[in-house]
Write a structure and sequence with these properties.
The chain is 41% helix and 15% strand. With 410 residues, the protein is α/β, with parallel strands linked by helices. The chain has two domains: 230 residues, 3-Layer(aba) Sandwich (Rossmann fold), CATH 3.40.50.2000; 168 residues, Glycogen Phosphorylase B (Rossmann fold), CATH 3.40.50. Strands 1-5-4-3-6-7-8-9-2 form a nine-stranded mixed sheet, sandwiched between helices. It has a five-stranded parallel sheet with strand order 12-11-10-13-14, sandwiched between helices. Helix 6 links the parallel strand 8 and strand 9. The longest helix is centred in the last third of the chain and has 21 residues. The radius of gyration is 21 Å and the shape is globular.
Length: 410
């Protein structure tokens, strides 16, 4: 099935780059890219933190005078993603292309790649930036337009797999085969960069550029009068630790602590968690709500809990920290990079007892929780801005383009 390309007129932003553990960190600075670039972002699903990252990055790049286009799956994301893409489309000088893409490896990938390559050629892309395993594969497999910089950001993706499983072996072996085809590897956390180096290998050019949030997200969120004690926001998957949170609520109620929670999101394991809540007789204690904007969801609870088993540098933590929301998170992935010297507040993953204890302490000492939230907000404001993220990515592009010039590809 052919993809649809929407072309729009061109319309005419500030930072930090950090190297992976293999090289020294670079202090934040304004982007060095002076000439307008043709930038094409390729990714599969318009959902979750990856989608938010690409949209934020594209908007910032457009604001700085670059010509941007998106290639994204046609069948996922629903009405909310459609609305976001429709609002962004008029400012995409290189157009919005939606092509059916399967999540898993599939024969249809053979038909998608030529469509991606055609758009790369039509856009005269200087930068082809693949996000996630599928987007990264298309970008690195594309063999046309030799002068374009091929960039890959895994956003977790293949890195979430273990090579001890068949799926993990397939995905990580594919990553190793494709690694020489990438010119620049960007990671949103040092944790992801180190995981990639351990599971796949060390790219010749790699940078860590932390995710960032916009100034408007530092405004406080007014909690609803009927808000629950706890709110969770995210995809309904086991790796998000929702089952551990439900067990923690059950433990607290067994002790006579009547705690309520609102779980916001959707995903393949939605019914599994509803069944768990019912089995533990928590139907009245736990409310399930569909996906909604993060700030709207934050208003549904007084305390945000992020009980993940695995993360990279989650936006949900940055968003809650920016709004000074009292927050409990697990010590996994890149979350300690967000917390920095405040990381002693993090709890171990897969430990309902520890999570229940942390929830109880926050609810019993709201003033202390508010003070810690304010400290975390100041740290995020100083180190995790959207402007810093955009500068970091553009500076990394500049480094990559310089290497292409040295190698005679531009």
């Amino acid at each position: 099935m052919p993809g649809a390309t929407l072309s729009h007129p061109r319309v005419g932003g500030d930072g930090g780059v950090h190297r992976t553990s293999a090289v020294s960190a670079i202090r934040p600075s304004r982007a060095r890219t002076a000439e307008p670039l043709n930038i094409l972002h390729v990714f599969r699903a318009p959902v979750g933190g990856l989608f938010r990252h690409v949209v934020d990055l594209a908007r910032e790049q457009i604001a700085r005078g670059h010509r941007v286009g998106l290639i994204v799956d046609q069948r996922t994301g629903g009405a909310r993603a459609d609305a976001i893409l429709a609002a962004l489309a008029p400012s995409l000088a290189l157009g919005l292309t939606r092509i059916p893409m399967r999540r898993q490896l599939a024969p249809s990938d053979v038909a998608v790649l030529p469509q991606v390559m055609r758009r790369i050629a039509e856009s005269e892309a200087d930068i082809v930036h693949g996000h996630g395993a599928k987007g990264g594969a298309y970008v690195r497999l594309a063999f046309n337009r030799r002068e374009a910089l091929r960039v890959y950001t895994p956003h977790g993706g293949s890195l979430l797999f273990s090579e001890s499983t068949l799926a993990g072996w397939v995905y990580l072996s594919t990553e190793r085969l494709l690694m020489p085809r990438g010119d620049l590897y960007l990671f949103e956390s040092a944790f992801s960069a180190d995981t990639f180096a351990r599971k796949v290998g060390a790219p010749s050019l790699a940078r860590v550029v932390h995710n960032g949030v916009a100034r408007a997200e530092f405004d406080p969120v007014t909690v609803h009068p009927d808000a629950s004690d706890i709110v969770f926001i995210g995809e309904f998957r086991r790796l998000k630790g929702i089952d551990v949170l439900i067990d923690a609520v059950a433990l607290l109620r067994e002790r006579g602590r009547i705690v309520t929670a609102t779980l916001v999101g959707d995903g393949a394991e939605y019914d599994t968690f509803r069944e768990q809540a019912g089995r533990l007789k928590l139907d009245e204690a736990i409310r399930f709500r569909g996906a909604m904007p993060a700030r709207e969801a934050q208003a549904l609870g007084r305390l945000m809990v992020v009980p993940s088993r695995m993360e990279s540098l989650p936006y949900v933590v940055l968003e809650a920290a920016a709004s000074a929301k009292p927050l409990i998170a697990t010590r996994v992935g890149g979350i300690p990079e967000i917390y920095g010297p405040l990381a002693e507040d993090l709890v171990p993953p897969e430990n309902a007892e520890a999570l229940a204890g942390a929830i109880e302490r926050v609810l019993d000492h709201p003033d202390s929780a508010a003070a810690r939230a304010a400290s975390l907000q100041r740290r995020v404001a100083a180190s995790f801005s959207l402007q810093a993220m955009a500068d970091g990515v553009l500076n990394a592009y500049a480094d990559g383009l310089a290497v292409l010039v040295e190698n005679g590809r531009r």
